[in-house]
Amino acid sequence: MYAVLHASKVQPMKRGDARELAVHLIYGREFTGEEPEKVVSLRLEKEYYSQLKEENDIYGERPSRAQLSYIDTVVTGVANRTEELNDQIRRFSIGWDVSRISKLTRCVLQLAIFEILYVEDVPTGVAISEAVRLAKKYDGDDTGAFVNGVLGSFARSLNVPETNAVQSDEKTAEEVQ
User: Which of 36, 69, 86, 131 has the fewest CB atoms lying closer than 10 Å?
Assistant: First the structure.
């Protein structure tokens, strides 16, 4: 009996899932142009959100208050600093025109650069490894290598240690955090 009760206990959303959800919201803004506050409140509204779990596993758990705060902070921050973030992407994606980078990969890069610059509780290495994980998941291994190169160069330019920037496939960024 205890095992059944224990197994049905809802686990809080992990930061990596909240990060992935934030990328979805940032990406969605690329098409809607909605204000970030509206995107977060509409897309994370309970009824709407519960319908999304059929599309992607990360919608299976609702974000905690802490994760909602993180999502709101990064989605709004990326929206308010898009030009600054794109300038950094342009600067470090040598030989690439930013318009040729897929929108999703650009969103992943924007989020990681925002985290490195403005989110104190996210270590640089975690921001980079999570960005690589998301790029690989949605755009393939080659894109993961590209994202790692751009973000590694960016981190080095700041003289920020990029410890654990690339984790083995078996070790997730959650383990590093």
Answer: 69
- The larger pLDDT score, comparing residue 8 to residue 44, is at 44
CB proximity list for 16: less than 8 A, separation 6 or greater: 130, 133, 172, 173, 174
What's the number of domains the chain is made of? Answer: 1
Question: What CATH number is given to the structural domain containing 126?
Answer: 1.10.940.10
Q: What is the CA radius of gyration of the chain?
A: 16
Amino acid identity, residue 75? V
Examine residue 2 and state whether it is found in any structural domain, yes or no: no
Is residue 4 included in any domain, yes or no?
A: no
